[in-house]
Amino acid sequence: MSIFSKFPYIVIEGPIGSGKTTLARMLADRFLVDYLSEKAEVNPFLPRFYQDAQRYALPTQLFFLFQRATQIKDLSQRDMFAQPVVADFFLDKDPIFARLNLDDEEYALYHQIYQHLQLKAPKPDLVIYLQTPIDALMERIEARNVSYEQEISHEYLERLSNAYSEFFHNYDASPVLMVNNEKLNILKHEASLQLLLNRIMQIKGQREFFNPNFE
Fold first, then answer.
1. Which residue range is the domain that position 30 belongs to?
2. CATH code, domain carrying 143
3. Does residue 215 belong to any structural domain of this protein?
4. Does the predicted model carry a pTM greater than 0.70?
5. Least confident of 1-5, 52-56, 165-169, 209-213
């Protein structure tokens, strides 16, 4: 029995640098399931946002909103029983960034558009939330060397991580596994991934925690 037999639709979430895309891709490749990617790199406003957040926050946010709406629509129309899915984003977190980055008037406009779209995303069978210390996020962002990401500040990552933590503290629509992935290096250690897979298979509750001490 694989994790996708137990949880056919899995979402991986966490702040930038947490490793959500890496983990989602590895699960898709390992279990031969469909992979739904956020594709942040196709947002033409994102590099400019990290250089001038106040000016480009709204177009950046709206581009992501419409992009995710299209992806969620495609996902909703498919036969969810035909092929399991792993995604490196989910729509419910979109307002996190909107509230964090937009001023009050911009957020009001964003919220109107969000409501008008009447988005109804399929509910994940499991959300894996990757919690990572800020210093580790900074190190990973620096290591992957995407030019515009080097503009991201420690203060912004701290605000973003706090917003994620608050969101998942109150989220109860799907089972959530909160993973401290500071030492869970799935790129360097195959055993790390297997450790996580074993923990996923043990999930029984609505909210569980995984704090591996693996070097």
1. 3-210
2. 3.40.50.300
3. no
4. yes
5. 209-213
Token readout for 71 is 């992806």
In the numeric block, the tokens 């996902």 are attached to 75
d(CA 105, CA 58): 10
DSSP secondary structure letters along 152-214: --HHHHHHHHHHHHHHHHH--SS-EEEEE-SS--TTT-HHHHHHHHHHHHT--SSEEEE----
The count of domains in the chain is 1
Q: What is the mean pLDDT of residues 186-202?
A: 85
Length of the chain: 215
Amino acid at 103: D
Query: Span 124-133, mean pLDDT?
Result: 94
| Burial grade of 82 (CB within 10 A; 0-12, 13-18, 19 or more) | exposed
Contact 210, 10 (CB under 8 A): no
Provide, rounded to the nearest whole percent, the portion of the chain with pLDDT above 90. 55
Contacts of 183 (CB under 8 A, 6+ apart): 212, 213, 214, 215
pLDDT exceeds cutoff 70 at 42: yes
